[in-house]
Amino acid sequence: MSQTKQISSASEFNALLGSSRVVVTDFYADWCGPCKQIAPMYEQLSAQLSRPSKVTFAKVNVDQQTEIAQTYGITAMPTFMIFKNKQIVDTIRGADPRKLSEAVKKLAAEADSDGSAASGGFGESSGARWLGAGLPKGYSDVTDQVDVRGLDLLNADSGFGTARTLFDGAKPSALEAGKGKTKSEDKESGKDWVETDTDEQLMLYIPFQSTLKVHTLHITSLPPKSDDEAPMRPKTIQVYSNRAHVLGFEEAEDLPATHAVALRPQDWDEKTGTAKIELRFVKFQNVSSLVVFVVDGEGSGEKVRVDRMRIIGESGEKRELGKLTKVGDEPGE
Question: Are strands 202-220 and 194-195 parallel, antiparallel or unpaired?
Fold first, then answer.
């Protein structure tokens, strides 16, 4: 279900500006071709980044809401305005997906920080990060090096968690004795996991704050066993290293994966619902980003569920955020 608010009056828009710290607004027209082209991407950003009272996405039809359009001097469509504390902080004219995404994610991260690490990572302020599997000798959990401001998740059902949920340090609520009482960032819905939307495929882009050596991925999936219509656990997973952005599904199918694995039922820990994916370490020595592609699920269902993900390896040199470089394989590999 879309979280984007369709504005029906000037008073509604003014009230929204006063109730949400950041308001991203799409001024569009039904006859505008570029508006239609960028609309799916705008909805994707809304699904990923909307936070109650913090970040809200809105759409204003300029032909129906002429008063609002005149107030803000809208003369070209689409125009995207980003408000923070009722003030315009950025304006993007035209259908520029990259510029829109960068501007929105930056403001959303600021609005969502509230005491989190200024670097944009998931540094734990209290207690250790939950792990669903043991660590290989000589390596550590480097999930705190995930640059959460750049996370991107495709084909996720907006009724569940976001990309950030996967890296939440808390124990999954499905493992808690009092189910439904979750410490995750998705407290409003109580659903601290991700489920796919239209089919079983999921595409996750993970940028890092430093260059990593990645040894293992931990993936936790805890679908209920008693529900005949429960989502599936991931089966086939493809991993791509050092991509500059998230891959499209068709694009990923045409690219050779840096690592691919088909998980078996016995690969999942019975107590924690976690599978360990040991990567070809020689291929993951200087990693600035990963794309994880869940190709299909284990079973005949229509959707896949993922509760948590952990990155295991070694952290290295800090990189300048926003300047992601593609690193090729070493000679001879």
Answer: unpaired
